[in-house]
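In this section we walk through a basic example: taking a raw amino acid sequence and producing a predicted 3D structure, encoded as discrete structure tokens. The instruction is simple. Fold the sequence below.
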Amino acid sequence: MSRGKTTKLLLATTNAKKLKELQDILADLPVQCLSLRDFPDAKGVKETGRTFEENAKIKSMGYSAQTGVLTLGEDSGICCDALDGAPGVFSARFSGEFQSDDANNAKLLELMNGVPDKERTAYYESSIALAEPGKLIGVVKGQVRGLIARNLRGEGGFGYDPLFFYPPYQKTFGEVPIEMKHRVSHRGQALEKFRELLRNYLERA
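The resulting token sequence is shown next.
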């Protein structure tokens, strides 16, 4: 890549808090981060995959084809062992069509009611795909294990963070500063790998 060149990178998410996390972690790379708001004519891409990886690929390929821009597609969620991996790929829309973080967390707490502490194990997983129009460049993953708390704890983060208890910190992801979360989180791990994938791509471009 020629020195001083900045490459446009579409962060294909409609989640404002996730967008901010992605922008923060990629801030020092020579990319101009765009969002779907910059492409008002782009049609929504249906996440029909059965895994986070499949959905990440679908998003990156679908939006790069529509926009002509290098695209990051990410899918992530929480998987609870006591619920056979649910909510999984349905994490964002767990409570139905008019979902919200509060409604999703309330449903998860209800389903986990009565589950003993030692069986409340869960993991967050993130898959991130990079694609240019017509070509998938690569996919990376991150995962972090923890427990589902019995009540919401903390105002930080988003999604299921106030319920995701991380034993090494003895706090939920909702209780720790964002920098501490980034160090160990599923998305933080995946983005560190993605940074290397993107850097290699940019050097060849």
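Looking at the output, two observations stand out. The first strand starts at residue 7 and ends at 11. Helices lie at 16-25, 52-67, 101-112, 178-184, 186-204. In the next section we compare this with other chains.
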